[in-house]
UniProtKB/TrEMBL annotation:
This is TRAP transporter small permease protein. Keywords: Cell inner membrane, Cell membrane, Membrane, Transmembrane, Transmembrane helix, Transport. PROSITE patterns: PROKAR_LIPOPROTEIN (PS51257). Belongs to the TRAP transporter small permease family.
Length: 179
């Protein structure tokens, strides 16, 4: 179980770092948005590149923020049933839901979105707007975001199995296994 918990910790650390980058992107997106608005109204100048950069940052926040949010146990869940279960029941529900629904769905979506990215990459897709950005890099965010969410699901499955076997307990606030 120790090698699996080490893998889980590595996945958690990776998603924590990605989450910190996403937190910084929120600030950058706000600054770009405010700067863009000020320049547009003060100097009657607008740039499609900066507008698209805002959209790209938002896409990155959504796709990579999902795995960070899942890691921190701040995702949406129907807690009416969940709160009625014992701690062991909650662990089982998390385990079954993640193993049979979340991970397969994420891997399927990553697989299905790969051709969407690859086609854009193969042709060097650019924005149709004047001064727009390359499109293929942001399209790569879709399959990679789903892969990161699936990886975080693997980490959560490992932690739940370890908790059910008594190796660790789960800190409910941050989903960190404690020895």
């Amino acid at each position: 179980m120790r090698p699996l918990l080490a893998l889980s910790k590595a996945i958690d650390q990776l998603n924590e770092k990605i989450g910190n980058i996403c937190n910084l992107l929120v600030l950058i997106a706000c600054l770009v948005s405010a700067g863009n608005a000020m320049i547009r109204y003060a100097f009657s100048y607008s740039s499609n590149g900066w507008l698209e950069a805002q959209w790209y940052m938002f896409a990155i926040l959504v796709m990579f923020g999902a795995s960070y949010t899942f890691k921190r146990n701040e995702h949406v869940r129907v807690e009416i049933l969940y709160l009625m279960l014992s701690e062991r029941g909650q662990l089982w529900l998390d385990l079954i839901g993640t193993l049979f629904f979340l991970i397969p769905a994420c891997l399927l979506l990553a697989y299905l979105s790969w051709p969407f990215f690859y086609q854009a990459y193969a042709v060097g897709e650019m924005s149709g707007n004047a001064g727009g950005l390359l499109r293929w890099p942001i399209k790569f965010v879709i399959p990679s975001g789903f892969v990161m969410l699936a990886l975080q699901g693997v980490s959560e499955v490992i932690k739940r199995i370890a908790a059910l076997q008594g190796y660790v307990t789960i800190d409910a606030k941050y989903e960190r296994p404690t020895q």
